[in-house]
Write a sequence for this structure.
């Protein structure tokens, strides 16, 4: 009985380690880019929702004749109408650059003519700090968005 020898060729340990290092570096770079993109999308979504909610609060006060309020504390905005409140937390990468408690009330039927509220925000995106300042003009229901 004779044995026929088969020689099996494979990768050496060094070749396997080099291939693994290349693979892990590609995966880590793409996940880093994914985190930056996710943070930018979260900040953008927050600002869109915030703008919409402020306009809704003012319109409810004017149309329904009720007093509504917007408060900021503990990294969250509260949009209040009567006994109900809607909470909107800031994303982790977004900061409000006002150190004091912020509150504004819309008085029913009045529209709060000639009243403004300025809120400066900053957020990190791709390792850079970006800023935006909102100036809400409650008499008209419009706002100005200033990005330096």
């Amino acid at each position: 009985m004779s044995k026929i020898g088969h020689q099996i060729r494979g990768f050496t340990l060094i070749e396997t380690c080099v291939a693994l290092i290349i693979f892990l570096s590609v995966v880590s770079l793409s996940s880093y880019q994914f985190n930056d993109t996710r943070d930018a999308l979260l900040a953008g979504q927050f600002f869109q929702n915030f703008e919409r909610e402020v306009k809704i609060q003012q319109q409810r006060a004017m149309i329904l004749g009720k007093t509504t309020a917007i408060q900021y504390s503990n990294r969250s905005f509260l949009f209040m109408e009567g006994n109900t409140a809607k909470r909107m937390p800031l994303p982790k990468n977004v900061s409000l650059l006002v150190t004091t408690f912020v509150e504004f009330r819309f008085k029913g039927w009045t529209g709060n003519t000639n009243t403004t509220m300025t809120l400066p925000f900053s957020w990190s995106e791709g390792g850079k700090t970006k800023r935006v300042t909102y100036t809400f003009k409650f008499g008209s229901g419009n706002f100005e968005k200033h990005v330096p």
